[in-house]
Write a structure and sequence with these properties.
Helix content of chain A: 25-40%
Distance between the termini of chain A: 50 Å
Structural class of chain A: alpha/beta
Number of strands of chain A: 17
Largest sheet of chain A: 11 strands, mixed
Oligomer: homodimer
Radius of gyration of chain A: 24 Å
Shape of chain A: elongated
Chain lengths: ~425, ~425
């Protein structure tokens, strides 16, 4: 019998308890041992919960109980969760979590602590919800040198973009609807500004390249500036707009960013709709592989947590964590040195001179038909691949042109 | 240092040796130990191979060497491979293989033998080539009760169907081209008759439902009867034809079959083209998840073998195999009791009477426009869901109709 304590009885935590109860037979068959939730730690009261007898507000009930082998941390954030995780690992308890913020922030320290104490710190649920991705990346693709990861890692923003495209709803309307349907939180900042995707691509990159990639050095841009008109331009390019989390290993540097991207409809990620997530991996032996499924939600995420618990139980004797050395961020290439194509929209005062100025600033461009407004009011074009630092300078130059009123938007373009 | 012996220096075997050499640094970093190929067993001569000093024709060089911990079996088939695998496991050596035939035929016995000897018998490479699917199914989705598996598991047939559809080539022409391009073997029977897919869905089902599913009880139909006209009918239904390997757990029975299927273009598998494989998993907690990638080929398959080697090395102390009880096939539902919709094409002598007879035989059908031939020569329709045994009786009845010349084809229909 293996005893588990669940810290934080919220959406994911209660899902973990639910799955362990519901699928207990098949779980014990797979783990070769019975698994039981012995304690649930939460500061709230749950007088009507069927689990109320397991619930405690006293952390000592968990940490001082030598019979508790595995601690599930589903508190979230990097404060109390950080303290509790350190305490559990120090006391020789395995920790399983869905907390991407904590892993992305203190991963190297916590993994080292787990190693010292010969226990596991596992976090399959921190990326991609129920989609198996961390273990496949680390284990199943272990024989590959991973070249790149391209993913839709945030269900909220993908739902909003899907709604905008399909239903023609403005960003604000789509966001409110996502909140109403429980797909977006009351404070949606972490999702719509790309921070959630940023932490996830940092974790995936750390696993794939076997070195810690600090999320603080990953350039991150959300979808708040994406308009219906941008989506229409994308459509005219036989493309769509997705919030893409990207990372690529080039020599000993890692290129990583999170940004809205115009991707061709032939791209495997173009068809990923609504709250679904998908992750495209490119490795030297396997070529391209894709993982697709529900990237969030109570049961998918909880099922990933429980899978980690089973993993711990199956290999109680051994442990096989990750060895992330603490990087100072110098393994991430400065975003200014990365290059990509851009779709640029500018509001103009003088059509002919603006066109002239654009061609003076940019080497080679492809004009798009400005179908939304009068041709006299807007220009749109796609650039060649251009270094980020040059791109920013070029946009500054455009803004200084007498013929240009403003740069409306510039969005990365990626082909299939 | 962990020593590996490779049995069978063919496509996959040589790929394994290549990957271990090429990615040795990152592999040893992941396995926490150095991995070396010490011997290669093959009856052929390889005088020009850079590995010729490792190659031996004497099995004793492998089995009598106590320093060899892991045996890679890439011989294929269920004769010599069977003997060597039993021998290796009995002697306490771990075995890693890509041999789907052996796993599907003697899996329960070999897994039990591995268990007795406290070693691993791993076969990630037996299904889906480089796509991580067996370990994710067993480990990452361990907390789920798996409801169903729907897959495109054979690259050769998917390539042929893609060529037929896209280039309008007949089956025979597409097959010859596949052979020329190395996508089909000189004797393509196992692929085009569905046997390869059958063994693979048997293995996946055994993992998913945690009980041995014997491939011999899985109804299997290949793609040799699929014509360009069938594909055109599918197109007119906004669908396409794929060779689908299917399994579903219903109460304590398993429904499993391999067959060409007309699937809606909205189905996630419809867009899987050429030699790619994809596997759709439905579990109670995760909902739907899909795995996509190259299902065959030297390096993808070899990378899955090497991943299993790393897995063994990481957990040398422990082992966690599968516990497949030997079933007598009575866990598989008789195909006659399964039901599905069908698209049926019949060649007719008398249009009006044939139509009458069809509506007499089938409860409710939907007529299709017979666009390929004259309306007077052919009828085509889609049935409701019908039991397989009733379907076969119905087709017999149709054949007996005076107005019907022959049943040209009947193909399963599945919606998204």
């Amino acid at each position: 019998m293996i005893n588990v304590a669940v810290l934080g009885y919220g959406v994911v935590g209660s899902g973990v308890v639910e799955i362990i109860k519901k699928n207990s037979l098949s779980i014990s068959k797979k783990a070769f041992k019975e698994i039981k939730v012995k304690k649930i730690l939460d500061i709230r009261d749950f007088p009507d919960s069927p689990e109320r007898e397991l619930i405690t507000k006293n952390p000592d009930d968990v940490f001082d109980d030598p019979q508790i082998d595995i601690v599930v941390e589903t508190i979230g954030g990097a404060t109390i969760a950080y303290d509790f995780t350190k305490k559990a690992l120090s006391m020789g308890k395995h920790v399983v979590t869905s907390n991407k913020e904590l892993v992305a922030t203190h991963g190297p320290e916590l993994l080292a602590l787990a190693r010292q104490n010969q226990v596991n710190y596992l976090f399959e649920a921190s990326v991609g919800g129920g989609i198996p991705i961390i273990r496949p990346l680390n284990r199943c693709l272990a024989a590959n040198e991973i070249h790149s990861i391209v993913g839709i890692l945030n269900g909220t923003t993908n739902y909003i973009l899907s709604q905008m495209k399909r239903e023609g709803k403005d960003f604000d309307v789509a966001l409110k609807e996502a909140q109403k349907n429980g797909y977006a939180e009351a404070d949606p900042t972490a999702d719509i500004e790309g921070h959630d995707s940023c932490r996830k691509i940092a974790i995936l990159s750390s696993i794939a390249y076997n070195e810690f990639v600090d999320y603080k050095f990953i350039y991150t841009e959300g979808i708040t500036k994406i308009s219906l008109t941008d989506l229409k331009y994308a459509e005219s390019m036989n493309s769509t707009i997705k919030l893409i989390a990207f990372s690529e290993k080039i020599d000993d540097k890692i290129v990583a960013w999170v940004s809205p991207v115009i991707i061709g409809n032939g791209h495997p990620l173009a068809g990923v709709e609504d709250v679904f997530n998908a992750i495209l991996i490119n490795g030297d032996a396997i070529g391209e592989a894709m993982f697709y499924g529900r990237g969030a939600g109570k049961l998918p995420t909880a099922s990933a947590v429980v899978a980690d618990i089973i993993e711990v139980v199956k290999h109680l004797g051994s442990f096989g964590g990750y060895n992330w050395s603490l990087a100072e961020g110098d393994n991430v290439l400065d975003v200014m040195e990365t290059q990509t194509r851009y779709m640029v929209r500018i509001k103009i005062k003088d059509h002919k001179n603006a066109k002239n100025d654009v061609t003076k600033v940019f080497n080679k461009i492809e004009w798009l038909n400005a179908f939304n407004m009068d041709n006299e009011e807007e220009l749109a074009f796609v650039t060649e691949k251009v270094l980020e630092k040059d791109m920013r300078q070029n946009l500054e130059k455009l803004k200084q042109s007498e013929a240009v009123e403003e740069v409306i938007n510039s969005i990365k373009v990626m082909e299939a």
